[in-house]
Specification:
Shape: globular
Radius of gyration: 19 Å
Number of strands: 9
Helix content: 25-40%
Strand order of the largest sheet: 1-2-3-5-4-6-7-8-9
Distance between the termini: 35 Å
Number of helices: 11
Order of helices and strands: HHEEEEHEHEHEHHHHEHEH
C-alpha cells in the first residue's frame, strides 16, 4: 500500500474543517446529566478464568438510559491496595471478548476495566451488551444509526456508556480514582478522546489510530469501512448531507480533543486507509493539553504500531501517573 494522505510535514499542521456546534457543551452536559439520574448500580462478580496471576470480575453497570452495560475488571492476583486503573474501549464491531483474553495491563500491575460496546460484538470478538434503542433508515453497521438527529445518534449512547464506565471503574475499592487512564484502539481510540474531553480529571489518555475524528475529511477521503457507511447512506439519501454533518459534529473527536487536558499519547500510521492520518493529526493538533505526543508508524496500515505501541505506552504511562517526566 502506498502513502495516500498528506505528507508528514503537512500532517503536523493539519486542522479540521469540522464546525463545532454552538451548544456542544450544553448537549453533553444535559446528556450526561440524564444518564446520572439512574443509579450506576455497578456490580462486580468474581469469575474463574484459570489464570492464577490475575483476579477477574464480570461487571454490569447502568449506562445511557439506565441500560445495563457489561465489562471485565481485572487486577493482579491478591491485590489488596488501590491501583491506578486503565479503562479500555474496544475497536469497531468487537465486544469485550472472553475474560482470559485481557492480560496486558493487569500483568503490568494496573487495575484494568474493559467496557463492552453496546450492540457490537459479532465481527471479531464476542459482545454481551444489547442496544435496546432503534433508529431510522441506516446503512448496515453503526455509523449512520440515528444520523439525522444528534439526540438519536448511536454514539451518543456509546460515549455516555464510556463516561459511566469510568465512573464504574472508579467505584471499585481496588481502584485509585485519582490515577484513571483511558485507552483504546481505532473505535476505542475515538471513544478515548471523547472521554478525555468529557471527564476533566483523568490522569492520562492513550488513543491509538483513533476512529471518529475529523468527519468532513474522513468521509470524503477514504472509501474504506466504517467511514464508507456514511458515503453509502448519502449516496441514497442525497439531500441529507448537511443534516448528517451537523449530527456528526457533536461526536467529532476534534471537538472533544479541544477540551482534553490530561497527558496524551496518540498514534497514527501513514498507510492507514481506515482512519487516515490527516484525521488523527486533526484531533492531535486540536488537543488542548500541553503534555501530548504522537507516535507515527510510516509503513503501517490500520494495525498501527501494534505491540510496538503497547511497549511505548508501558514506558510512557508510569511517569505520567507518578507526575514525573518520562523515563
Amino acid at each position: 500500500m502506498a502513502l495516500f494522505d498528506l505528507p508528514l510535514d503537512q500532517l503536523r499542521d493539519r486542522r479540521s474543517s469540522s464546525v463545532e456546534p454552538a451548544d456542544f457543551d450544553q448537549f453533553w452536559t444535559d446528556t450526561l446529566g440524564q444518564a446520572r439520574q439512574y443509579d450506576l448500580a455497578a456490580a462486580f462478580e468474581r469469575v474463574q478464568t484459570g489464570l492464577t496471576t490475575l483476579d477477574t470480575y464480570d461487571v454490569t453497570f447502568a449506562g445511557f438510559g439506565g441500560h445495563p452495560v457489561k465489562g471485565w475488571f481485572t487486577v493482579p492476583a491478591g491485590t489488596t491496595e488501590p491501583l491506578p486503573v486503565v479503562v479500555e474501549f474496544i475497536g469497531y464491531g468487537g465486544g469485550r471478548g472472553l475474560a482470559h483474553t485481557h492480560l496486558l495491563w493487569a500483568s503490568a500491575g494496573y487495575a484494568h476495566f474493559v467496557m463492552d460496546t453496546r450492540g457490537q460484538g459479532a465481527n471479531w470478538s464476542v459482545g454481551d451488551t444489547e442496544d435496546p434503542v432503534g433508529s431510522g433508515p441506516a446503512t448496515p453497521g453503526f455509523l449512520t444509526r440515528g444520523i439525522e438527529d444528534p439526540y438519536d445518534f448511536y454514539y451518543r449512547r456509546v460515549f455516555t456508556d464510556a463516561v459511566r464506565a469510568v465512573e464504574a471503574a472508579r467505584s471499585h475499592p481496588l481502584v485509585d480514582a485519582s490515577r484513571t487512564v483511558a485507552a483504546g484502539v481505532s473505535q476505542g481510540g475515538g471513544i478515548t478522546i471523547a472521554v478525555g474531553g468529557l471527564v476533566p480529571d483523568l490522569a492520562a489518555i492513550a488513543p491509538d489510530v483513533p476512529f471518529l475524528c475529523d468527519f468532513p475529511r474522513a468521509i470524503s477521503l477514504t472509501d474504506t469501512l466504517p467511514y464508507r457507511e456514511v458515503g453509502t447512506y448519502l449516496s441514497v439519501h442525497r439531500d441529507r448531507k448537511a443534516r448528517a454533518l451537523d449530527t456528526l459534529a457533536y461526536f467529532d473527536g476534534v471537538h472533544f480533543a479541544a477540551r482534553g487536558r490530561a497527558p496524551a499519547l496518540f498514534s497514527t500510521a501513514l498507510e492507514d486507509e481506515t482512519c487516515p492520518p490527516s484525521t488523527v493529526f486533526a484531533a492531535f493538533n486540536a488537543y488542548a493539553g500541553q503534555d501530548k505526543a504522537i507516535e507515527v508508524y510510516d509503513f503501517n496500515g490500520h494495525e498501527g504500531g501494534g505491540p510496538h505501541q503497547q511497549a511505548a505506552q508501558l514506558r510512557w504511562l508510569p511517569g505520567k501517573l507518578a507526575g514525573k517526566p518520562d523515563a
